[in-house]
Design goal:
The protein is globular and about 65 Å long. It starts with 13 loop residues before the first strand and ends with a helix. It contains 16 helices and 8 strands. It is an alpha/beta fold. Helix 4 packs across helix 5, helix 6 packs parallel to helix 10 and helix 11 packs across helix 12. Strands 1-8-5-4-2-3 form a 6-stranded parallel beta sheet, sandwiched between helices. Strands 6-7 form a two-stranded antiparallel ribbon. Helix content is 49%, strand content 9%. It folds into 2 domains: 176 residues, Rossmann fold (3-Layer(aba) Sandwich), CATH 3.40.50; 233 residues, Dehydroquinate synthase-like - alpha domain (Dehydroquinate synthase-like, alpha domain, Up-down Bundle). It binds nicotinamide-adenine-dinucleotide. The site of nicotinamide-adenine-dinucleotide has 31 residues, from helix 5, strand 6, helix 6 and helix 10. This is NAD-dependent methanol dehydrogenase. Keywords: Oxidoreductase. Belongs to the iron-containing alcohol dehydrogenase family. One of its GO terms (molecular function) is methanol dehydrogenase (NAD+) activity.
């Protein structure tokens, strides 16, 4: 508890977690009175798993009609969303769906979230960037995440690439939070190591970034009575701490041994707990700069977060010394003083990123030194993230993070032996 907190906590309507829990979904959908749904996924799930077919058949037996859209793609664009809107509306032949189901990673869930707001009117998704009005009435969403992960099943936003914009754009409102988030760890068993690593480091970034972000008492809600994000609080930090601890135990194990059921399940909990933290606390520079890096390189969301994470933490460490030591302790790291410990933590995380097969500097992502200034500017344009970075000079901090991330520079400490540290946990 912190007396100064101003908590505005927005979880999904229902949170269901459990191995095999997907089998319970059709009955719940019927119980809620839904009758006509749109199922948003991608080709992988239709061709390589039985999950889509099983759901559609079971739902049909309960009187629920479902149209399947399987054109989801990694990192959906506004263009994909608009073409999906048109093709689903044609398939619906004027009928109004009463729910949307999303099966997939953050990409399919975000596309489905955006469709919840575009399908009723057929308007382009760009109309909704910057906020919904009270007249907009999104279709209820049921999210079935297959990565562990993005946590999109618990957040108010759909993140889309905009071909006309240097960074990602967001369609955001609490009404877009899923009515049901169903986390069946078995969905993640088929994730290849690359997807496991990218999604897992995303979850860890969410947990750490929201643990260190601006306090709820200082957060600028812009006068909004129902803010999507409202700063960290004792409640969000509780989830963040547990998520970091689960990532410390299971992220690398999950990447090394994809058939380790306990590790897979642990990362599913890490992902949703991280989302219950950042989904109300919000994020800051790590994602702000990562969006700009993604705009430039088109590398995956997890990879662009991972490359920025240690350098953003380094810039933040003078202003969050206690929390840096707490996170270090979770990873089994202790230095001679808080400064040492913070630096050792940043080194350790950079080594963990490398061990997950992800580049640890911007040069290795193919970014040239000449792009650094524009990258810094593009990161700063996502103002909701920049203004939540709790440092006195945000512009200077962004510039430092980008330059350090380019050079791979974390200061004077020697490379740590990440595996030895992980073995101690
Ligand atoms: N809305 C939010 O709050 C939020 C938060 C974080 C990230 N995101 C977005 O999420 C996206 C990244 O999502 P992601 O990391 O989950 O990856 P993804 O959804 O982009 O999926 C990557 C690839 O992995 C495949 N895949 C997914 N699950 C699989 C499984 N179980 N088995 C085999 N293959 C599988 C997909 O088919 C796809 O080809 C980005 O676009 C990012 O912007 C959104």
């Amino acid at each position: 508890m912190r007396t100064e907190d101003l908590i505005h906590f927005c979880p999904p309507g229902r949170l269901i977690i459990g191995a095999g829990s997907r089998a319970e979904l059709p009955a719940l959908v019927a119980h809620l009175g839904y009758r006509k749904g749109v199922f948003v996924t991608d080709r992988f799930f239709v061709t390589s798993t039985r999950w889509v077919d099983e759901y559609v058949k079971s739902a049909s037996l309960l009187g629920i009609e479902t149209i399947v859209f399987d054109g989801g793609e990694p990192d959906p664009t506004t263009t994909l969303c608009d073409s999906a809107t048109q093709s689903v509306r044609e398939a619906l032949k004027g009928a109004a769906p009463d729910h949307v189901v999303a099966l997939g990673g953050g990409s399919n869930i975000d596309l489905a979230k955006a469709l919840c707001i575009t399908l009723p009117s057929g308007r382009p998704v760009r109309d909704f960037v910057g906020g919904l009005t009270s007249a907009d009435n999104p279709i209820p969403l049921i999210a079935l995440p297959t990565t562990a992960g993005t946590g999109s099943e618990a957040t108010p936003g759909a993140i889309l690439l905009d071909p006309n914009n240097a960074t990602k754009v967001a369609v955001m409102d609490n009404s877009l939070r899923p009515q049901i988030a169903l986390i069946d760890p078995e969905f993640t068993f088929t994730c290849p190591p690359r997807v496991t690593a990218d999604a897992g480091i995303d979850a860890l970034t969410h947990a750490i970034e929201s643990y260190l972000t601006l306090d709820s008492a200082q957060y600028d809600r812009n006068g909004h009575p129902d803010p999507g994000y409202s700063g960290r609080s004792s409640l969000t930090m509780l989830f963040a701490r547990e998520a970091i601890s689960l990532c410390a135990r299971f992220l690398k194990r999950c990447y090394d041994h994809g058939d380790d059921v306990e590790a897979r399940t642990g990362m599913c909990y890490a992902s949703i707990y991280a989302a219950l933290s950042y989904g109300s606390a919000g994020l800051n520079a790590m994602h702000g700069i990562a969006y700009a890096v993604a705009g430039l390189t088109h590398r995956s969301h997890g990879t662009t977060n991972a490359v920025v994470l240690p350098y953003a933490m380094e810039a933040l460490s003078p202003y969050r010394p206690v929390e840096m030591v707490e996170i270090a302790q979770i990873f089994g790291i202790c230095g001679e003083n808080p400064d040492d410990t913070s630096r050792a933590l940043c080194e350790f995380l950079r080594d963990l990123v490398a061990d997950l097969g992800i580049p640890t500097n911007l040069r290795d992502l193919g970014i040239g030194e000449g792009s650094l200034d524009s990258l810094t500017r593009d990161g700063l344009t996502v103002t909701r993230l920049a203004k939540s970075f709790p440092v006195p000079d945000v512009e200077e901090a962004y510039s430092r993070i980008v330059r350090n991330a380019y050079h791979g520079d974390l200061g004077k400490f020697p490379r740590r032996e990440a595996n030895k540290l992980l073995d101690r946990i």
